[in-house]
Design goal:
Elements (H helix, E strand, L loop, with lengths): L1 H17 L2 H18 L2 H65 L2 H62 L4 H71 L2 H21 L5 E2 H18 L4 E7 L8 E3 L5 H12 L6 E10 L3 E8 L4 H11 L6 H14 L5 E7 L5 E11 L1 E2 L2
Parallel strand pairs: 2-4
Antiparallel strand pairs: 1-3, 3-8, 4-5, 5-7, 6-7
Helix pairs in contact: 1-2, 2-3, 3-4, 4-5, 5-6, 5-7, 5-10, 6-7, 7-8
């Protein structure tokens, strides 16, 4: 016993030097148990009381620190939410005014765009409130956990008091209370864990639904911006061609343009169109550009025979901006004639791999021409389309731009690879 007591006293000194609070509590209890085994009940009772008091002080300090940290986090999140909500509300008020002005001017496109932005801001407010509620729920859960810890501490204290009573009165009745308390804690833990998992699943489901709605609204807003951009470019081509062409060719151009506009307007009514309609619109657009540039380039459109063009649907105007880029920047600056090839293959059950390849001057020289003629102007259509692809596929990993070069590192053209998710038309 003496050697055991010496070892514990040494360990107690080391724990005190290292400020190991858990070690101190354990070693105080071991001393109490040794005194109890030796029959020194008074010393055993004293060390049991020291153990209880030390454990109480540790638990209370931990609870204070944890509660204080959680309150600070919640108050900070609450303040940030109030600021964000106030800013969004101010922006919504401004957009409401701009929306009314758009109605007065008869600008329906601007009215829809303002309404889309208002809906987005309202959704952001809902998500922000939901996140704040999650913070509050987390604070409540931690409070419950702290209460459970306090209950466990009280039960532990009760057990130690029963131990002291057993030392003094030589009784063994404490085990019934201890095991009953542990069983209660176990059952409470199971119930609390089930409640916490249920709340977390509910919150995650609500967050996923709101994020899905936000993505749908963003896609709709980008598509609404795409149609005016495309029509502007097409009308500009018509204007230039009519100025420099004869009446017969201009008439042919306008007939093709009217067919193209009818297809574009029909396709823009929905977020998805058949592959047949989209390819037909793309074909008409390229033929118009061929007329405009005096057949300086040729093109091919190859669609794998396994693809049902009438029942497979894709987003409208998803390939046209990249074809336009290939013609305007890759082929038109080329001294000789060129070509652009569009290939569509099926991969997997519901995905298409679309390839747009030209034998133009390459991106490096094209950027030099653009900087000389357009300054810092950016490609609006391709940027919007890339963002649409990212939102539709959930990432931008399915989009590649490949610079084609020969063995002497001279440019041979550009290749665009796009993987699109498809949907069946019933």
């Amino acid at each position: 016993m003496d050697s055991a007591m010496k070892a514990i006293n040494k360990a107690l000194e080391l724990s005190a030097e290292e400020k190991d609070e858990v070690g101190i509590a354990i070693e105080l209890k071991q001393k109490a148990e040794i005194y109890f085994a030796m029959g020194n009940f008074n010393e055993a009772a004293n060390y049991y009381n020291l153990t209880i008091n030390y454990k109480d002080s540790i638990a209370i300090e931990e609870k204070k620190r944890e509660t204080s940290r959680l309150i600070e986090e919640y108050e900070s999140a609450k303040k940030q939410n109030e600021i964000s909500t106030l800013q969004n509300e101010k922006r919504i008020q401004q957009l409401e005014i701009e929306k009314q002005q758009a109605i007065i001017r008869g600008n329906l496109e601007s009215y829809r765009q303002k309404q889309s932005e208002i809906d987005l801001l309202n959704k952001e407010n809902i998500i922000s409130s939901l996140n704040l509620q999650n913070k509050k729920d987390e604070l409540n859960r931690k409070t419950i956990e702290a209460a459970s810890k306090e209950l466990a501490l009280n039960l532990s204290t009760q057990r130690e008091k029963l131990k002291e009573r057993e030392i003094i009165n030589q009784k063994n009745t404490k085990n019934i209370i201890i095991y009953g308390s542990l069983l209660t804690l176990f059952l409470l833990g199971i119930l609390f864990n089930q409640y916490r998992q249920s709340q977390r699943r509910k919150a995650e489901a609500e967050t996923r639904d709101l994020q899905h709605q936000l993505s749908e609204m963003k896609i709709e807003a980008l598509r609404a911006q795409m149609n005016p951009h495309f029509i502007f470019n097409a009308l500009n081509s018509v204007n230039r061609y009519i100025i420099r062409s004869d009446v017969e060719t201009a008439s042919e151009y306008l007939v093709k343009f009217s067919k193209l506009m009818r297809l574009v307007l029909e396709n823009s009514k929905s977020s998805l169109v058949s592959l047949h309609n989209e390819i037909e619109a793309l074909r008409l657009y390229i033929e118009l550009e061929q007329l405009r540039f005096d057949n300086k380039f040729s093109f091919t459109i190859n669609i794998n025979e396994s693809i049902d063009k009438d029942t497979t649907s894709i987003p409208p105007l998803i390939l046209q901006p990249y074809v336009e880029n290939a013609i305007w920047h890759g082929l038109m600056n080329k001294s000789s004639s060129g070509k652009v090839d569009i290939t569509i293959n099926k991969i997997g059950h519901n995905q298409l791999k679309c390839i747009i390849q030209d034998d133009g001057i390459g991106r490096k020289k094209a950027n030099q021409f653009k900087s000389e003629t357009l300054g810092s102007q950016r490609s609006f259509g391709t940027e919007i389309t890339k963002e649409r692809i990212k939102l539709l596929n959930g990432s931008d990993q399915n989009f590649k731009i490949i610079d084609l070069i020969d063995e002497n590192s001279q440019p041979l053209g550009t290749r665009i690879e796009i993987i699109l998710n498809t949907f069946s038309i019933k």
